[in-house]
Design brief:
The complex is a heterodimer. By secondary structure, chain A is α/β, with parallel strands linked by helices. Chain A contains 16 helices and 12 strands. In chain A, the strands form 3 sheets. A 5-stranded parallel β-sheet of chain A has the order 2-1-8-9-10. A 4-stranded parallel β-sheet of chain A has the order 4-3-5-6, sandwiched between helices. A 3-stranded antiparallel β-sheet of chain A has the order 7-12-11. Chain A is globular, with a radius of gyration of 21 Å. Residues about 315 of chain A have low confidence and may be disordered. Helices cover about 30% and strands about 25% of the residues of chain B. Classes of the chains: A alpha/beta, B alpha+beta.
Amino acid sequence: MKYIDEFRKGTIAAGISKKMAALVEGHDRITIMEVCGSHTMSVYRYGLKNLLPPKLRLLSGPGCPVCVTSPDYIDTVIAMAQLTNSSSPAKKDIIIVTFGDMMKVPGSSSSLEIERAKGASVAVVYSTLDALRLAEKHPEKQIVFLGVGFETTAPTIAASVIEAERRGLKNYFVLTAHKIMPPVMRALLTDKELNLHGFLCPAHVSTIIGSRPYKFIAQDFHIPCVIAGFEPLDILQGIYMLLEQIVGKNACVKIQYSRVAKEEGNPTALALLEKVFEPCDVEWRGLGLIRKSGLKLRKEYERFDALTAFRIFDFGFRINPEIRNPKSAFHGCICGDILRGVRMPPECRLFKTVCNPEHPAGACMVSSEGTCAAWYKYGEAP
Amino acid sequence: MKNTKITLAHGSGGKLTHELVKGLFLPSFTNTVLSQLGDSALLQLKDMNLAFTTDSYVVKPLFFPGGDIGRLAVCGTINDLAVVGARPLFLSAGFIIEEGLEMSLLEKVVCSMKEAAVFTGVDIVTGDTKVVERGSADGLYVNTCGIGIVDNTIHFSTALIEVGDKIIVSGTIGDHGMAVLSERESLGFSPPIQSDCAPLSGMIGNLIASGVNIKFMRDPTRGGLATTLTEIASTLQYGIVIEERNIPVKNGVRALCEILGYDPLYIANEGKVVVVVSEKDAVNARGILRQDEVGKDAEIIGEIVDEPSGRVCLKTAIGGMRIVDMLVGDQLPRIC
């Protein structure tokens, strides 16, 4: 199939694999982080590890938006979802609307999947426009869209807010937990435990933000960056381009995914982000609070902000101890270390014992793009 | 069980469905026939071997490109009989209808059932009708049971599988799941992806009659090819290796899977069979399948190997290798 088969040719892969082996011969161990979850998944799905030099270690970074969504956020959503279940005549019912991946993410006590089975109104959509349609179809209900995702997803949420305004919708709200990539990469670089030699930068995030926001990584930290696509040959070529820089002791930002990602990014999407969102400090699961690493709605769009619109006391829902359980199943979960790339899933005592994709304890198991899910599903290459 | 509520994933045909069957149904109804967990129960009555099976159909929407709930209900049950080597003879039909359903829709469904039954020479000999209040069901659910006769000389079992045996799939995978999904979500692909929903008893009958050394068959419905192969592998001391490049997938299905982030290996089929056959008969068996319209894209996709025992491995087109596991949860669209 066109645009697919060209990027999955075994003969070319074997050629790159050979060149990589020659390039790193005699070199010490090299560690590269693939920041994005889709890269992690591709590496496993296509069995790329046995095409890479043995001394190359790939670490999976924090680039799975579901994985880094904090339990507090999920608890808040569950509190809202439970409200839809209660009979409070004064208030309009809420429909929680989300992309599918959020369904299984554990809060500290429950998940949306479990809440839906108990009767909460939770709708899974493929597009923010579907959420707007729901809002139009159910004027008697409050539609709360879960705005989770990086720079790739955030512009579509921004567009939905602008569209909701244009259509005069009064019952569409976004509960934002958007995050942006460069600040978390900076946080990782200042982590002394990490000994990184290069970043394989995300493909789709970079189509939006371009290559410039990564420049500080090469300039200030002397770590090479390559923006690579998600197809197997993209990844192999991207890693090869990183190895060239690492072996040649260069550090700059290169674009392998040049058919889509440009230096300046996507100006239309960036303008949308700028118009609707502003940076804020935000909590990353496992990594803690990172300054200016999130996006929240600007003051002009505050009325679409679920947290502002449903001020807890006015709205009458409480995030009680049954929902926010301090002694949750995460006890012993090392998702934080896994997201920082300092430990691997098998080093977690919960991995495969109590934590598996049906009953995830930590976020890295939840998303199909999570490191633990990838390890669970595909194991080490046989 | 750990989850105190049933979630949709319990019905996906993947891991949670297996937990439910093995944790609740099997120990409760315990008997030697059920514990075989075949697509049909095999019953020995005096000098006759009967195959008996049941399946309920709750597909949404009721009509989709390539079929409807009626055709599905007849074909699915016929196929469950056919893969254990039975000649399907009789079906039952149970209808659970939601108050308010258009009579014309029911007529269309019944007409499809009749056509599929006539085509395969099966009689629908008993039935039941229930109507529930509006909101208590989603339009129409159909249950069918089927009875067939298994020739005395036929015995398929995973216990017969040996190293070197070949794995054949009778055609392109993922058609049904993607057809229903694109119809349900109004994805508007043109031309629409057609479901492969079809009765396989004719083709399978010819394959059996040819005398090729069939070890085991199963139709890869919910959970797709991956789940069927992992089910087979889990009963073996051997492993299964399949080659990605040999697995037939239609371009439209592949494209939609790429867009939505699905893996065709896990998408449901309703007109395909996986056959484990001895190495020397593999090419011949593929040829026989290809003679039938529903088997024209049959391919040999892999083989039985020594290691890794009990697991399925996929040789990827790019030259890598990975483990294929059973479907976990419902496949969900990615969000980034």
